[in-house]
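Duplicate of #3305? Posting structure anyway:
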């Protein structure tokens, strides 16, 4: 615990946590995981939460839903059973983190980066259930960055806030090579961004959209990253500025962007779609409620589930409502209520088509959304109450829950959800 990588000061951690909750500077992860989704290739196809964001980073895998080797299978507060799965303990991270990003690597390991004042990154090995340090980031990124798994298996980490007290948005980007375990500079982006989304397109490029500009405002600009040239180019702008929004890739290759904030004190209910062929955004929806830092997950039937988030930048009002977007009508429809209002949660698409919703509430109870019934059901309890953590679906179908903010301080513990 004496390592300089394990924490900044308590005051800095609390300030960073409040930035996440109020300014909605998340991946999400996410989502989001982004980061989610909230968006990297590791997330559930065709979900826009393939970054971890968000998102809110939600990462889908394949194979039997069995625990990873090395997981703690019995005893202790972390072994909490529910009618639809249970949570079990696993190894702790090398560093304490909140608002970090996660990406599923081709070999089944998970890259964890950012969410710390230090450049340290780490990988989780499901075979041993342990985390170990890997090559450091070139530039430390505290919150608001995105991680996207590219078609060749490398991971693009872009933007986010720097480690200064002002938390300035970064234009820099870097790529992680799982083979060498090292980061290399790429880009940079055309401008600094934090709280943006990153969505992997069908042609291998990455759409970077919105984010904060460092002066309290939101950005409407968007850009495309080309892994072949390692460069970013501007594309069409969004219909309105957005930061802390959710994104999901649709089955037809278009990208849904919903909610967030335009820099005012109210969250957005509006949504829009990006068409990669035309490089143009078009308004759709709107949603039934304004949401920032919501989670978005592409379902197996082509709809997109949008849930939770914050209804106020001033009073921090978490939402229990959920809705689905239908690409054939470009409209949103109500999708029931969660048992608990959540902000800073993760949403992960499981192999059976259900969605695991974890954290972001006042207690540690998780929920499952069933697309066939449109209802939420209990899914056991996390070992601790988390927010702005990451959730990564492993190749065996289990879900790695790591880090996050607990009681105003960043956390290094992790656990597995076994469906």
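Output from current build:
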């Amino acid at each position: 615990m004496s390592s300089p990588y394990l924490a900044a000061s308590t005051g800095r951690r609390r300030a960073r946590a409040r930035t996440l909750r109020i300014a909605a500077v998340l991946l999400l992860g996410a989502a989001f995981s982004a980061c989610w989704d909230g968006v990297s290739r590791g997330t559930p196809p065709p979900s826009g939460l393939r970054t971890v964001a968000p998102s809110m980073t939600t990462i889908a895998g394949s194979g039997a839903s069995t625990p990873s080797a090395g997981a703690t299978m019995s005893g202790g507060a972390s072994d909490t059973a529910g009618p639809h799965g249970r949570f079990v303990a696993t190894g702790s991270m090398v560093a304490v983190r909140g608002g970090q990003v996660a990406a599923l690597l081709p070999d089944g390991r998970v890259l964890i980066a950012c969410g710390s004042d230090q450049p340290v990154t780490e990988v989780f090995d499901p075979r041993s259930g342990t985390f170990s340090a890997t090559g450091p980031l070139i530039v430390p990124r505290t919150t608001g960055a995105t991680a996207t798994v590219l078609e060749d298996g490398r991971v693009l980490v872009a933007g986010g806030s720097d480690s200064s007290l002002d938390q300035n948005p970064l234009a820099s980007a870097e790529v992680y090579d799982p083979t060498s375990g090292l980061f290399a500079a790429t880009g940079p982006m055309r401008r600094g961004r934090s709280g943006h989304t990153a969505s992997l397109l069908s042609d291998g490029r990455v759409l970077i959209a919105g984010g904060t500009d460092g002066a309290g405002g939101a950005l409407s600009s968007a850009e495309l990253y080309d892994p072949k040239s390692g460069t970013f180019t501007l594309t069409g702008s969004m219909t309105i500025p957005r930061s802390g929004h959710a994104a999901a890739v649709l089955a037809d290759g278009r990208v849904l962007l919903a909610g967030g904030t335009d820099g005012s004190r109210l969250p957005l209910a509006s949504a829009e779609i990006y068409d990669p062929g035309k490089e143009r955004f078009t308004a759709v929806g709107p949603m039934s409620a304004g949401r920032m830092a919501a989670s978005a997950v592409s379902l197996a039937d082509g709809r997109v589930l949008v849930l939770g988030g914050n209804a106020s930048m001033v009073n921090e009002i978490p939402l229990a409502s959920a809705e689905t977007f239908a690409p054939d009508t470009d409209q949103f429809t109500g999708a029931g209520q969660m048992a608990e209002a959540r902000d800073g949660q993760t949403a992960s698409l499981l192999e059976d088509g259900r969605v695991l919703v974890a954290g972001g509430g006042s207690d540690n109870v998780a929920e499952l959304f069933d697309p066939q019934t449109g209802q939420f059901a209990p899914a056991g309890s996390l070992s601790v109450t988390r927010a702005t953590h990451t959730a990564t679906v492993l190749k065996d179908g289990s879900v790695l829950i790591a880090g996050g903010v607990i009681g105003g301080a960043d956390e290094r513990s992790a656990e597995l959800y076994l469906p």
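Confirmed duplicate; merging threads. The two ends are 32 Å apart (CA to CA). The longest strand covers residues 331-342.
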